[in-house]
Amino acid sequence: MSTVIEMPEATTTARTAAETVASLTNVTKRYTNGVVALDGLSLTLARGEIIALLGPNGAGKSTAVKLMMGLSSPTLGEVRIFGADPRDTATRLRTGVMLQVGKAPEMLRVREHINIFRGYYPQPMAYADIIKAAGLEGIEERFFGQLSGGQKQRVLFGIALAGDPDLIFLDEPTVGLDIEARRAMWAQIRSLAARGKTVLLTTHYLEEADALAHRIIVINKGKVVCEGTPAEVKSIGAGAGNSGAQSGLKIIRCVTTLTAQHLEAISGVTHVELAGALTSVTSSQPEATLREMLALDLNLHSLEVQSPLLEDAFLALTSDR
Ligand code: ADP
Ligand code: MG
User: Fold this and answer.
1) Residue 37 CA, ligand 1 centroid: distance in Å
2) For position 288, what pLDDT does the model report?
3) Is 55's C-beta closer than 6 angstroms to any atom of ligand 1?
4) Which CATH class is domain 9-232?
5) Atom 25 of ligand 1: nearest residue by CA position
6) Is pLDDT above 60 for 4?
7) Which among 47, 54, 282, 320 is least buried, having the fewest CB atoms inside 10 angstroms?
8) CA proximity to 183, closest of 150, 152, 136, 223
9) Segments making up each domain of the chain, as ranges
């Protein structure tokens, strides 16, 4: 049972100020190789919100997460978490993270992984709650090394919850998951937010941001391109994408052994993306593309064809103007 405390309208301003849990203010991050990953980026995260940081590969999403975790410091600007420095121990104890390239020792059991991480925190989440929230029932005694990719992702998600964090960073949490596992993780993320946790999720799937987020912040080349509710972002994107030039576009998703190089040579293909086990192919001649793909890879499976309305909107927002 959760309790929702209704606040009277008059206190809204004060509440908004009090409820900011994280902020980046005019943050620029220049790596030592000269790459400017974030370019004057500002954003705030409020209590109980699911925020999707959406952008193509290389946009700066992971860099923003690393700055908020205190794993990296800004070249310019300020990062505050719970009003403090992200490197403070007290701050770190209130945050949980699932990194994009997460790894864990293979020879430990799921139960051991979760309990080791629970041991790092003064007030960890109850073991049973983590198992339930991360969907780990039935695999608790398995070795990490024996798990499927999706199961490993769920363990890493469980580890992110170990300290019962108020702020959770999930960097591309559903990459490589099949549709069913992705939906299950979405449900788990929603239930965390319903308990007052703030979740910052990075993704390059507009579909995922749309399904989950209260607020979407679209970034590209280290800058905020647009920000709003999913409906607002989609309407802006649809307007921007209505040039008509790409109206026949479809996104073909499947599991295939065909390489990006093979796929890019197929007629109609405009874009190829490999995300874990899944391959996404954008095509302006989907039927022809699909025929060729099926002929070239007889074992192609888990096929899905989508209208790229959302992706189209997103591409329009993040393409060079
Ligand atoms: P995203 O998560 O949106 O794909 P990243 O934040 O990982 O983007 O990367 C943003 C840009 O910064 C990219 O051009 C990337 O190559 C570069 N970059 C990321 N990490 C480093 C690093 N440690 N050193 C140098 N360049 C980096
Ligand atoms: Mg990333």
Assistant:
1) 6
2) 93
3) yes
4) alpha beta
5) 31
6) no
7) 320
8) 150
9) 9-232, 244-309
